[in-house]
Amino acid sequence: MTSEYVDIVVVGLGPAGASAATQAARRGCEVVAIDRKREPGRPVQCAEFVPAMISVEMDDLGASVRQPIDAMVTFVEDDAPDIKEGFPGYMLDRVAFDCALVSAAERAGTRCAPGASVRSLSPDGRVELADGRTIIAKVLVGADGPRSIVGRAIGQSNRQFVETRQITVPLRRSHQATDIFLSADMPGGYGWLFPKGDVANLGAGVDPAHKARLKNIVAALHASLVENDRVGAQILEMTGGPIPVGGMLQPWGMLGGTLVLLAGDAAGLANPVTGAGIAAAVHSGKLAGEAAAGYVSGIRTAGPEYEEEIESVFKAALERALRRRAELAAIVDTGALPGKAALRRGWIAYPQYWAA
Length: 356
Prior knowledge:
CATH topology of the domain at 3-60 and 92-159 and 247-320: FAD/NAD(P)-binding domain
Number of strands: 16
Largest sheet: 8 strands, mixed
Helix content: 25-40%
Mean pLDDT: 96
Distance between the termini: 58 Å
Structural class: alpha/beta
CATH class of the domain at 3-60 and 92-159 and 247-320: Alpha Beta
Order of helices and strands: EHEEEEHEEEEHEEEEHEEEHHHH
CATH superfamily of the domain at 3-60 and 92-159 and 247-320: FAD/NAD(P)-binding domain
Shape: globular
CATH architecture of the domain at 3-60 and 92-159 and 247-320: 3-Layer(bba) Sandwich
């Protein structure tokens, strides 16, 4: 089959990829965006919470918002909950959110190809698709998630993960906070209850070594919340997957003469403590789209400049989270269990987390 030549290929049409495609297409670039999923955002593989500041990045969240959040409630072992007011955010309908981003990319002029997957990337940057097509681009944007094939092609792969399991359950009464459950019984992660109107996402994450325990951990959390009449016993949906927690990768490289840029989870931008990654995906995607368009227009330093931008926005927060994660891991490595003070120091709701 003949090869197709374009300015930019975006691999992955989640928040990072769709945002990158939109920015590049708005700058006059010919952009093709592919995703192995046939429907944006489905299956949902996240807890769907975003901080309120994401509204700065988005033209209109609109129908994507299921409900506002105004506080965080943290349960540490069997202690009374700690309430952090003034923690604004939104619970999303992730499918609607992703669909809106893809629609924006298409309106900007991106040619989107759902249901298409990458078979291989050649050393000179050729993108070979599973259907036999070959696309050659000046820039390749990798926004294809935690185990990015694009990142692997330039030697940048996430190597540390948290494994998650999440169920959606009926919510017994209205709730405007995200609930966090910290326990030594959830090594490397935490539990959560995130309300979405009349339902809630309930789940937990742990280090991969404890993945076999995840089902029982989530079931026990579910049972306790049913007993307290906070949620119903019925399980409406179930999902899960890996979250990268090793911190930022080098977000650019070269394949022959093709510039490669990584964004979102593919660049390791999920927070190593909270696992949050949607807002980082949108912002890094926009920066990647701008850098890609710059390279197409002749800016040969677009890759290093993109890395500088990414570091200025994300590096300090990611490094702090990595330190806190390492502190908890060091306790576990001694054969001990982290106590309540250590759990609090390892979580963003507490001033100890932000101390030196």
